Amino acid sequence: MRAPRQGLRLLRRDWRAGELRLLATAVVLAVTAITAVAWLADRVAAGTEGRAAELLGADRALVSNSAIGPEPESLALELGLTTARTLEFTSVVLAGDETQLTTVKAVSHGYPLRGRLEVGSDPDADARPVDGIPERGEVWAEPRLLLQLGLDPGDAVELGASRFTLSQLLFLEPDRGGGFQSLSPRVMMHLDDVPDTGLVQEASRVTHRLLVAGDSGDVAEWARQVERRLGDDQALEAPGQEQPGVAQAMEAAERFLGLSALLTVVVGGVAMLLTIRRYAARHLDRVAVMRCLGATQRQIVAMLTWKMIWLGLFAAVAGTALGFLVHLAMLELLADYLPALPPPSPRPAAVGILAAQVILLGFAIPTVLRLKRVPPLRVLRRDLGNHVYRGASIYVFALAAVFALMWWQAGDLLLSVYVFGAVMGTLAALALAGGGVIWFLRRQRGRRGSASLLLSGLTRRPWTAVIQIMALGLGLMALVLLTLVRNDLLATWQGGVPDDAANYFLINIQPDEADDLAAMLDDAGVETSVYPMVRARLVGINDRDIRPSDYDEPRTQRLVAREFNLSWLERLPEDNRVVAGAFWEPDPADPEQFSLEKEMAERLGVGVGDSLHFDIAGERYSAPITNLRAVQWDSFNVNFFAAAAPGLLDDAPATYITSFYLPPEQSSLLAQLVRQHPSVTLIDVTAILDTVRGIMDQGARVVELMAFLTLLSGLVVLLAALQVTREERQFESAMLRAMGARRVLIRRLAATEFLLLGAVAGLLAGAGAATAGVVMARQLFELDYVFNPWLPLVGALIGAVVVALAGLAATRRLYRASPMRLLQEADEG
Predict the structure, then answer these.
(1) Is the pTM of this model over 0.85?
(2) Distance CA 530, CA 310 (A)
């Protein structure tokens, strides 16, 4: 028990002497960043998923083509979840002598569990949110059904054997989705009214859904248990899973958050490494004295280890408390942009305590423990023992700790490997470039004049100068990344869904209507392009037929079981990018070519050169895959998973599809369009667009706020890098003062050194940040981001100013004290 008490006593003494304050600040700041990110990420991720859950109407949905038994719902209720059921089928609505094919959706009480319904009493009136569902004997219908049948709210319609009152117009259905499977107007009714209609029989084609919502842990447990018992015609749906645009936006938001967290960990680690090395160097004499007084190596190890453990515990408590307050401040700033969030969990607090120990284990303890090798003879010969904290093993432990924290913090191995590799490459580039600059300056040292004196501060300490350039460069690179490049990346990401992104789709356009409809939109000033669309089923790959049961993943099974929307493309769409193979020419000599979306290709296990066989209205169409495309689904333009070259599908029966942006003040055009083209199906994706934009805005604001913590870590790195040479500067300042140098000259020499250090480090940091931005944009976020040639110059300017100001502020005391006092302090240190 003596070692813990002695460690605590040593910690108290070092703290009073100011020895541990910079190290403690680095640890506290790292823990603050980690815990704040953990709390914020946990709660915002839940909130972001909640936004996507609005498009599912629930946290999870069990989908089946046959009736769902009572077991899944009973399990949900046992776990304290709320449930609702829906039933969807196709039927004909009768209004007098008029008929219209519709998609009927029957819902139970509680629907929707997430999101909201919006209704109105007039097609031109504003929609209003509503709690509840249609009463028994009533239906709600989309406005276009009224336009097609000439109905008014309050009129009677017939569904099967039952008669209903059309009481409200249905403007928004949260789980309507953006798919094109439903080509007809929609009607909503009470689930208990379905049996009386006689429309649903055993052989009827009906989609059953059981919706569940509640605590995320309970929902996950329910999903795990239900997934083990899924039938052949059943599938589980999660938020965003069936919405490519939403899923892509959620994934990008999560990666932005993960990247910000990783940068905080890396920059904090560099500050830690610099600080602990200086701390260990300043304790060589004290450990030598302890050895002279009879302390064994084991006792020294025990005391120093316990001192670090106590420091880790205190720093963890302080950092965790600050992290909690920072995350609350962030949430307060985001209050207008976040949905209701779950209460904070204790997990991030445990993460903070454990992270502090991991940080010290990787960065501090391997260095401090080497102090046990300090020979007692150092009390007489100050040159002995300086080698004890040198060697590669220190950095191996530190790098292992960095990577472990990065992986743990981000939860994404690929992102961690990318960032870790980028950091290592950046450090190597900084070391080489910094070494080259110092070598060049040393070559100039032999020349006479004031320039030689101004450069002497860097040339006298070449290895220390290189280390400072590396540390300052990494810290400045983080600053540039999180100020300039971050803004560019976020703007590029958000620009993927511009204000005039398509908010309406028209499908089921007949070939003889396509030109008239395009002309009608053009006359109204609406820009659009019309694409052919062919319904096809994938029946074979290469020389084998395929079935849904050939694949284990439920989503792939559904993909194979349902029909594809094929098209033919003359040119590559702007929001598509070829990632394998080559896209065909506008008028290809060989029309037998397919282009496939890359994620679909991965699911199907195919690539360039494989042949696909589609069944279209009983005819077989086959062709090899000549290219794979990455599709920007969150652009909300017309896109296809599979497309053919012009000429391959000319004989196939096709309808047409288009998308366009229509501002609210031109909404009357929709009624005119439906009246003139009653067979065309209009799909409003405004709700999905709003959700995607909300996810993007939310993610951008969170990244901006979390970047502040990384900026603070970067400033700690700058201070730690400047502290590396503090003792040497102190001694040199004293010697220059003793030889008659004036304070103005000493300040000028220091300012020149700091300006050079900052400019070189900033120049390299700007180049590294610009390169990292391009790599991250293309490899991690699939964004079009170009190298900014001005960043190196901006980085050099920022680096020179920031390092000069920070350096002069950190060393101002050295120029005010007397030479005798400085020499005494240097001799004691």
Answers:
(1) no
(2) 69
